[in-house]
């Protein structure tokens, strides 16, 4: 994320400095362009330039030109009497440098106009190499997550990746000629980082395989239940398959009417009106008679 610092506060004008890493510089430029701010692009200072600026600020410090007060005079005289002026100057220099951060060397970057971006051409990929990755449309492969995976596996930037062609079960992509060696080293060391996904080099671009005839060519048409259904001949032409034959689409032969089956009435059993009581209503022989349940006299009475 870009870091911003300013010198003007409380309504006063000042200088605002935006520090952005190299891979986020276009994001910072886009934010400034959206805010309608014209910014000047400058390269970061070197460690030598920062150290020279530190030493210049030490020599021009306002504390050196201030008048010595009466309270400070005894301490100043005692320091001059005990220490040489060179030792005092060295101690002052060390104190000033210890309070400042140590400058670091950073990689040099080219200062360019980010607004005027030149379009990419195929000349940069002349003599490049094609690679294959084992994911395709069936695995829902998309360039928005394929490109970061490829760049991370080969330790390259997206500018080194050319065309990306996605097929049913695999995807091929092109790598610039000057990045092929480093890309192979990165893939051999890091891999893809995904389980079951591998990257390998191929001889050249693969032509796309023809689509199956099970689905009509072109984009899918939404289903309309009220639309008339196609004829059988049309369905045979649109949804033909190697396993189907022409006889499968012919109408079946119409047979003659079948003879009616003879009617056989069901045998009726004699109906006995005097069935009597069921057997389970009487206790079995030798069993004690069942006791009647006692009435519950503790039921709550209904209140009026």
Question: In summary, what is this structure?
Answer:
The chain is α+β, with helices and mostly antiparallel strands.
Question: Helices and strands in order, then pairings?
Answer:
Layout: E1 3-6, E2 16-19, H1 25-34, H2 47-59, H3 73-82, H4 85-98, E3 129-133, H5 143-154, E4 161-166, E5 171-175, H6 180-190, E6 199-202, H7 232-238
Antiparallel strand pairs: 1-2, 3-5, 3-6, 4-5
Can you offer a commentary on this structure?
The mean pLDDT is 77. The protein is elongated. It has 304 residues and is α+β, with helices and mostly antiparallel strands. Among the domains are: 42-98, no CATH class; 122-202, RRM (RNA recognition motif) domain (Alpha-Beta Plaits, 2-Layer Sandwich). The two termini are 81 Å apart. The chain contains 7 helices and 6 strands. It has a 4-stranded antiparallel sheet with strand order 4-5-3-6, with helices on one face.
Assign the CATH topology of one domain: Alpha-Beta Plaits
Oligomerization status of the protein chains: single chain
Please tally the helical runs, counting DSSP H or I stretches of 4 or more residues: 7
Tertiary shape: elongated
Structural class: alpha+beta
Q: What is the gyration radius calculated from CA atoms?
A: 46 Å
Low-confidence stretches: none
Task: Provide tags for this entry.
9% strand; 7 helices; single chain; 4-stranded antiparallel beta sheet; Alpha-Beta Plaits; 25% helix
